[in-house]
Amino acid sequence: MTSRGTPSRFLRSVLQNGVGRYVCQLKRVSIIFSKKAQSSLGVRDFIEEGVVDYAKKNPGTVVYVSPQPCRVPKIVAEYLNGNTKEELVTNKTSQQVLEVLTKLTDQSGLDIIRIRKPFHTDSPSIQGKWHPFTNRPPSAGFIRPQNQHAE
């Protein structure tokens, strides 16, 4: 927390993700819906049409489809860091359900908070900042202003 009262942190990557190969942070997706409720119509359409395509595109993610007697259909996403997120998909179309799943797949599982600054290093330099004359040989001498009165 900062003095503003909002949580913030420095920009960071989850387990250096992207330095080597990319590892999707989404581990498991559970699609919970009702077989009969009208609010689950789009989810049922998505399960008939698109869930197999989604599973083929994301082989590292386990997809569970569980029909339960519930009024509110939802998607529960579990990430590698242990966090879970729930998204309600009440009265959404099949395309909107796919968009919600894609959004959950692209996230890292970390809470979305304000980034303090766009760069950060864990081991800052003790040599100071670089400038154009850092590596200039000392034999070159000092830089003097040119004489304005050329003869």
Automatic annotation (TrEMBL):
Chain residue ranges for the region called Disordered: 123-151
Keywords: Mitochondrion, Ribonucleoprotein, Ribosomal protein
Keyword Mitochondrion attributed: yes
Domain Ribosomal protein/NADH dehydrogenase per the UniProt entry, residue ranges: 35-108
Entry's localization field: Mitochondrion
Pfam family of the protein (one): L51_S25_CI-B8
Entry GO CC: ribosome
InterPro entries: Ribosomal_mL43 (IPR039927), Ribosomal_mL43/mS25/NADH_DH (IPR007741), Thioredoxin-like_sf (IPR036249)
Mitochondrion among keywords: yes
Main location: mitochondrion
Record-stated family: Belongs to the mitochondrion-specific ribosomal protein mL43 family.
UniProt name for this protein: Large ribosomal subunit protein mL43
